[in-house]
Each structure stands twice: as structure tokens, then as C-alpha cells.
Specification:
Elements lengths: L1 H7 L11 E3 L1 H10 L1 E2 L3 H8 L12 E7 L7 E6 L7 E10 L4 E10 L6 E11 L2 E13 L6 H34 L3
Antiparallel strand pairs: 1-8, 2-8, 3-4, 4-5, 5-6, 6-7, 7-8
Bound molecules: ligand A8S.
The site of ligand A8S has 15 residues, from helix 4.
């Protein structure tokens, strides 16, 4: 796990270091809870669809793509009501189907997260003969004026935890669906 983080979740903070959150601790606390009992393919097939985040992200109501689905493309995401945000414009920075890495950068929108970038990696593992997927997500973001590092980290961490929990639940139901379809009843 530490090796995955070393390899895939690296950042190069610029400017005043205090204004950046690189939450290694958050990633580590995640590692324990987010071992998903699923075919890792199902997880990755949801994550890699940069054009359809609403399939698993509970706060996204709609997503519109600008340009073809390729590295560098942009999506405009609409956020459900109840959050301090309405839209977000996001760029696909990296999509690696072999290593299972998705990296995005927020480049605009109506919300408080300035210079937000994130990396999500999904690692298939066999534990007790069963396939699992370990999902690790890390992020870097400016601390908004009037907020503390801790508050900012807590806010983002809560959103990401919701996303990953939902990813787990939806992947699981898709995996079960796939299984029952192959069993001809
Ligand atoms: C993601 C991660 C995050 C998304 C945040 C942190 C966001 O979409 C929501 C509320 C906000 O205030 C910021 O990978 C923003 O989705 C749900 C609009 C960016």
C-alpha cells in the first residue's frame, strides 16, 4: 500500500506550502476501509468513465463533455443542491488502464476548491483466494481564505469517502448482476 502511494500519488506543491493540503494520512486511513469485495474490473469500469461520473458519484446530477473522451478533455459537472457548489469544470489529466490510474484537475466552476487535483488508483489483489480491489484516492488543493487546513481536508475527505462508498456499493450490485446473468435460471 505504501508502495502504491509512493509510486502513484506524488505531488509537487508550489508556492507557500502552508496553502496546500497533501493528505497522506487521509489516504492511509482509507486503505483500511476501502478493500472492496468485488471484481476489480467492475470498479475500474466505473471509475475510468470520465464522461459519466454520475454513475457512482452521489453528488453529481449531470455531466456534459466538451470534446472527445481523451486525455486533456473537459467535463462540466452539475452538483446536486445542498452543497456549497453548483458546477465544476474538470480536465482529464491521466487515464491508465494498465496501472488503473485516473487523475483529474478542476479548472473552473462555481465552488470553493481552487487548484484541486486528484489521483485515484485501483489495485486488484487476491486475498484468501478472492479478488479484491484496493482503491486509493489522494488530492491536493488550496486552502480557501478564512478556512483552515484541517477544515478543508475534512470537507474534501468527506466527499471522497461518500464517492468511494458509493463506488463500492454500485460495483458490488453490478458484479452481482453480471454473475446472475451468467447463471442461466
Ligand atoms: C470528486 C471529488 C470532489 C468533488 C467535489 C472533492 C465537488 O464536486 C463537490 C462539492 C464541492 O463543493 C466542490 O472527485 C466540487 O468528485 C461535490 C463541486 C468540486
Amino acid at each position: 500500500e505504501a508502495e502504491y502511494i509512493r509510486r502513484f500519488h506524488r505531488y509537487d506543491p508550489k508556492g507557500n506550502q502552508n496553502y496546500w493540503v497533501v493528505s497522506q494520512k487521509f489516504v492511509l486511513s482509507f486503505l483500511k476501509i476501502e478493500r472492496l469485495t468485488l471484481l476489480s474490473l467492475t470498479v475500474w469500469s466505473l471509475v475510468r468513465r470520465f464522461d459519466q461520473p454520475q454513475r457512482y458519484k452521489p453528488f453529481v446530477s449531470r455531466c456534459m463533455m466538451q470534446g472527445d473522451f481523451a486525455v486533456g478533455c473537459l467535463r462540466e459537472v452539475n452538483i446536486k443542491s445542498g452543497l456549497p457548489a453548483t458546477t465544476s469544470t474538470e480536465r482529464l489529466e491521466q487515464l491508465d488502464d494498465n496501472e488503473r490510474i485516473l487523475s483529474i484537475k478542476i479548472v473552473g466552476g462555481d465552488h470553493k476548491l481552487q487548484n484541486y487535483s486528484s489521483v485515484l488508483t485501483a489495485h486488484p489483489e487476491i486475498i484468501d483466494g478472492r479478488p479484491w480491489t484496493l482503491v486509493i484516492e489522494s488530492f491536493i488543493v488550496d486552502v480557501p481564505e478564512g478556512n483552515t487546513r484541517d477544515d478543508t481536508c475534512f470537507f474534501v475527505e468527506s466527499l471522497i469517502k461518500c464517492n468511494i462508498k458509493s463506488l463500492a456499493a454500485i460495483s458490488e450490485s453490478l458484479a452481482v448482476q453480471d454473475l446472475t446473468e451468467t447463471i442461466d435460471i
